[in-house]
Design brief:
The complex is a heterodimer.
Chain A lengths: L1 H9 L5 H19 L2 E4 L1 H17 L3 H7 L6 E5 L26 H8 L3 E6 L19 E2 L2 E5 L5 H8 L5 E6 L5 H6 L3 E4 L19 E6 L2 H11 L29 E5 L9 H16 L3 E5 L4 H19 L17 H14 L5 H24 L2 E5 L15 H5 L6 H5 L4 E8 L5 E7 L5 H15 L1
Parallel strand pairs in A: 2-3, 2-6, 9-10, 9-11
Antiparallel strand pairs in A: 1-3, 4-5, 6-8, 7-8, 7-12, 11-13, 12-13
Helix pairs in contact in A: 2-3, 8-15, 10-11, 10-12
Chain B lengths: L3 H10 L6 H18 L36 H5 L5 E2 L2 E2 L8
Antiparallel strand pairs in B: 1-2
Classes of the chains: A alpha/beta, B mainly alpha.
Chain lengths: 463, 97
């Protein structure tokens, strides 16, 4: 999609304004039904598109302009936890209604510098707390494949907007699966980069040792282009990595013959929906046909990952949400929704005197064991694959009164966050009822290029 | 199982004022979640180091250049505050007279 837009602009078959208008019109038309956007920033988008068109028109070297602006004229939606200077940023929570950030997140600036056009702020579970989009104070985002079903979460609007072509790129965040889960529910490609690969500066923090800034696109190629723009060291985020940003597109078409793909038995237990397991097995067959070697592996602490996550994450949440005091910005703390309150309470408890060792410290130690599992596995294999989700997209309302059941939806995605590993969700087919199924590819630290390579190979075969 | 007193104590630590409805709703939910995470007690973690950061090769970094280019003005900082006075945020008194 991105390269299509780029070549249209290059050959002057379309202007930035025309591309922007096309997406804005679709977004405005579908949003009352799908609720992917909290706000559509039409005027700002058109103004920016016009400015870029002037740049294109006055450019003597359009090739060079397109090389420096990799996303020239590409419409993008931002999860509403990305701070945007002068544009209301709510985190999909009532507590931040009316909040106008005075600066933009580093990633937002990078997207703008690359010529991307921000067309709106996307819906999500409030403060990114959830796996279904139902925790938004602005209503649930619908799944374009079945509007009675959720679109996944917490980056619910990112999945739906990309799947329904209401944006080309949906920027999200992934703390325990929040990019991969909606991607798998909406037949899109979702990347959770390595921890520290993309700057977190200016994005409302959920759990600082787990938060990863990712994106949803319609293709693996687009995902690779976006990472090239968003990745890289940021002096404003001390945890951002200084390791080199690669030309991720280059390795897309590499042969995967001889590649070792690990399949953890813990990811394919009987708890996985049979149709999802089938789709994963079919993908493995394709990889074998392409010359890859499928290696059964064990990640024996997998069953403890969710418990580790649901101690460490709320602990960090309770600390990060302490800043919402209703004094410097935002409303008072009674405006937090149920899920934020639950997580603040759990985190406050697990960090409190007398319980810290039994919960928080214990979880940090088990986190070490989980990381060791992956280290050992990656001595034997190049990538690890499995399902993204153990279930097909649930019906809206199905799990809302059962927080623990909702938490269990994260069971296959949280390990990558705990270990800081990059992971890519790609479409792997549909259920008999027509619901999307996603495949997850997990790689070594900073080995996103390999994920794109392996993802692209399957994507081309399934076309 | 959490007690009602514990819930109220945690809420107080977290500066959350809970309604009676919320207390009744959260009590069983939080108890169930805590019971689930206690499954970690099944595994021994003797002599295991805790992890707080998953990318272990990162070293402490010290700022060698000023990053003042993106510093906010006083006016910007106060922009979202409910009440301000003389360039400061007005808040409730902490100490009583």
């Amino acid at each position: 999609m991105i390269n299509e837009i780029r070549s249209k602009i290059k050959s002057k078959k379309a202007s930035c304004v025309e591309v922007t208008k096309e997406y804005l019109e679709r977004a405005e038309k579908l949003n009352p039904k799908l609720n992917a956007y909290i706000s559509i920033t039409k005027d700002i988008a058109l103004k920016e598109a016009k400015r870029l068109d002037q740049e294109v028109d006055s450019s003597h070297d359009l090739d060079r302009l397109l090389q420096t602006k990799l996303l020239l004229g590409v419409p993008v939606g931002l999860k509403d936890i990305y701070s945007t200077e002068g544009i209301e940023t709510t985190a999909a929570s009532n507590i931040l209604k009316g909040y106008i950030p005075q600066y933009s997140a580093t990633v937002v600036r990078r997207l703008e510098d690359a010529g991307a056009i921000i067309i709106g702020k996307l819906n999500n579970d409030a403060f990114a707390h959830g796996a279904s989009g139902e925790n938004s104070d602005f209503g649930v985002t619908k799944n374009p494949f079945d509007e009675k079903r959720v679109a996944g979460g917490s980056s619910s609007g990112a999945g739906t907007s990309v799947a329904a072509e209401m944006s080309v790129i949906g920027m999200g965040t992934d703390t325990g699966g929040s990019v991969r889960n909606p991607a798998s529910f909406t037949n899109t490609v979702g990347l959770k980069p390595t921890y520290g690969r993309v700057s977190r500066y200016g994005i409302i923090a959920m759990a600082s040792s787990l938060d990863s800034i990712g994106h949803i696109t319609t293709s693996v190629e687009d995902s690779a282009v976006v990472l090239k723009v968003t990745a890289g060291y940021d002096p404003y985020d001390a945890t951002s990595s200084q390791s080199a940003v690669l030309d991720y597109e280059k390795s897309l078409t590499d042969s995967i013959s001889g590649l070792k793909i690990g399949i953890p038995e813990e990811f394919m237990s009987s708890a996985i929906d049979a149709e999802i397991a089938d789709a994963v097995n079919k993908s493995l067959k394709i990889y074998e046909k392409l010359g890859a070697e499928i290696v059964p592996i064990k990640l024996k602490h997998t069953e403890y990952a969710l418990a580790v996550y649901y101690i460490l994450m709320p602990s960090e949440v309770s600390s990060n949400l302490a800043r919402f005091d209703g004094i410097r910005f935002g409303k008072n703390r009674s405006e937090f929704g149920d899920e934020a309150k639950r997580r603040i309470m759990i985190g406050t408890y697990t960090l409190s005197s007398g319980y810290y060792d039994a919960y928080y410290l214990k979880a940090q130690k088990v986190r070490t064991l989980i990381i060791e599992d992956y280290k050992k596995a990656f001595e034997k294999v190049d990538v690890i694959v499995g399902p993204v989700s153990s279930v097909l997209p649930p019906l809206i309302g199905e799990n809302v009164n059962d927080p623990l059941k909702m938490y269990l939806m994260d069971i296959l995605t949280v390990p990558a966050n705990l270990a800081g590993l990059p992971a890519l969700a790609i479409p792997a087919g549909f259920s008999k009822s027509g619901l999307p199924i996603g495949l997850q590819i997990i790689g070594k630290h900073f080995d996103e290029a390999k994920l794109f390579n392996v993802g692209y190979a399957l994507e081309q075969e399934l076309k | 199982m959490l007690s009602r007193e514990e819930i109220l104590h945690i809420a107080q630590l977290a500066k959350l004022e809970l309604t009676e409805n919320e207390i009744n709703k959260y009590l069983p939910q939080l108890s169930e979640i805590l019971k689930y995470v206690e499954k970690l007690n099944e595994i021994s973690t003797d002599n295991i180091e805790p992890t707080s950061h998953a990318i272990q090769d990162l070293k402490n970094r010290y700022q060698d250049e000023k990053t003042s280019e993106r510093t906010l003005t006083n006016e910007q900082v106060l922009k979202n505050a409910k009440e301000t006075k003389d360039g400061y945020v007005v808040t409730k008194g902490v100490f009583e007279e």
